[in-house]
Automatic annotation (TrEMBL), chains A, B:
It comes from Seinonella peptonophila. Belongs to the transcriptional regulatory Rex family. InterPro entries: CoA-bd, NAD(P)-bd_dom_sf, Rex_bacilli-type, Rex_DNA-bd_C_dom, Tscrpt_rep_Rex, WH-like_DNA-bd_sf, WH_DNA-bd_sf. This is Redox-sensing transcriptional repressor Rex. Gene3D superfamilies: NAD(P)-binding Rossmann-like Domain, Winged helix-like DNA-binding domain superfamily/Winged helix DNA-binding domain. Keywords: Cytoplasm, DNA-binding, NAD, Repressor, Transcription, Transcription regulation. GO terms for biological process: negative regulation of DNA-templated transcription; response to redox state.
Length: 225, 225
DNA sequence: GAGTTTTTGTGATGAAACGCACAAAAGTGC
DNA sequence: GCACTTTTGTGCGTTTCATCACAAAAACTC
């Protein structure tokens, strides 16, 4: 793989570009400029060009970017033809919504199984996705080559569940609980804290009424966050 | 309001501090150091001290921070005693999960109503929260002094719905749809793109297997914002 | 109460990301 | 095929955020 060090923020924007290019391709558009992308995605055109420049010289001066070529390039780069299987732990309100939302329909990610402690849920299916008891975890991970888990259990059991997941071989966790999880440093954890997102929006609204927009993918979060 | 310019990232971390201080207070802890907070929240202690320093000199050298005092200070600063009413537009899978999750239980934010186009949903209640038709929006906003909306409609109607919301007086939108919304610059929009979050996690996992953790609020950055 | 330890608040430095501005290349029009 | 327009790729200054490192202050110890 010829992927050098791509800045974190760039890696977060690539799926956005990819998604919009799919849309352009679907409506038969042949070419697009950084300015065109900028309008649609509300990202500075220079930032977009810089992002692409990390991947190579993908455009042509005076022309812009060829939609089909760029789309294919990003598909390869993001490995969009390989399907990634994931599991979901905690089939409650939020977990059920995520199971029902079929990521696979529009993306290369598939939730292959749900897990829950509640015996009344075990053995059922949600939109064709089977729900298992926790003690079947290792088995299912091995069968479907799963390394990523979505965590939607109550915060009180989040750490214990994490330990269990790590032990079973999970390497990445998308954590929806408000708990800050401890795990070995080779385990990648992204936090999505919906309560904080809402609180932060309200805070900015109350305190900086007429500020400019700020893109906010999870700083996630955020992170990123 | 004695709030100067607080860095964006700091504003996103304050609710995290607040939440943890509540927990400490509940178990009767009197004092906490930046190192103690750092351990629990996985944020560098210098960053934490710097964050607090924007708000004033809240700690005491050689002692740390008084939990009760700091909690009260943050409560005031974040205006945690004022309840903020919000509405939710699009009572589908995700919308229903959010309605069922009572933000109010642990925070100062209350979803007072849901709205949906689907007549079979209008007139029902979810956990005591009434669901209205879209044409009742202005009325409900005025009644409850609502300025913030959570948007969980299909992406295809997201822009039209946004226009409608802005027109009705909404000033802040927490957008769960993958659409990039256009709105006047005085409207604050935060994006939470769950698909991108998942894709980004997988990307990092595939390409940088043994990297260090990166906080990702939403930014979530958000991050993400 | 003198000496030791703890811990803050912040100056200084570094790292990451953003976006201006422009040369160079390619396309378009006549 | 010449003049003009479009648009990329990137050098570079700016902004934003993270973290080191340390003096100063307060708290403990005995
Ligand atoms: N629902 C939301 O809108 C929302 C919003 C913000 C944050 N969250 C967070 O997301 C998480 C899930 O929220 P929810 O509303 O879906 O809660 P929920 O109670 O509806 O669902 C939790 C599920 O986890 C299962 N569970 C409990 N202990 C378990 C264990 N040890 N192992 C496996 N499964 C277990 C329960 O049986 C239940 O099905 C919580 O941490 C919550 O704080 C949810
Ligand atoms: N469910 C998830 O886990 C998930 C994950 C990622 C992104 N999303 C995004 O969140 C949004 C909602 O997802 P969902 O799974 O809840 O979808 P859904 O189809 O279950 O719910 C959408 C709801 O919006 C209502 N609606 C449709 N048009 C409307 C209009 N013009 N005005 C008012 N209401 C209208 C529908 O009646 C429905 O109740 C989508 O944009 C989706 O892309 C959802």
């Amino acid at each position: 793989m010829a992927d050098q060090k791509i800045p974190q923020v760039t890696a977060k924007r690539l799926p956005l570009y990819y998604r919009y290019l799919e849309k352009l391709h679907a409506i038969g558009k042949q070419r697009v400029s950084s300015a065109g992308l900028a309008d649609a995605l509300q990202i500075d055109p220079a930032t977009i060009r810089r992002d692409f420049s990390y991947l190579g010289e993908l455009g042509k001066k005076g022309y812009g970017y060829n939609v089909t070529y760029l789309l294919q390039f990003l598909r390869d780069f993001l490995k969009q033809d390989e399907v990634t299987n994931v599991v979901l732990i905690g089939v409650g309100n939020l977990g059920t919504a995520l199971l029902r939302y079929n990521f696979y329909r529009s993306h290369n990610t598939k939730i292959v199984a749900g897990f829950d402690q509640d015996v009344s849920k075990v053995g059922t299916e949600i939109d064709g996705i089977p729900i298992f008891a926790m003690d079947r975890l290792s088995e299912v991970l091995a069968l479907h080559h799963v390394e990523v888990a979505i965590l939607t259990v109550p915060a009180s059991v989040a750490q214990a569940t994490t330990n269990f997941l790590v032990n079973a071989g999970i390497r990445g966790i998308l954590n929806f609980t408000p708990a800050r999880l401890n795990a070995p440093s080779n385990i990648r954890i992204h936090h999505i804290d919906l309560t904080v997102e809402l609180q932060t929006l309200i805070y900015f609204l109350k305190n900086f009424p007429a500020e400019e927009d700020v893109n906010d993918f999870t700083l996630n979060s955020d992170g990123d966050d």
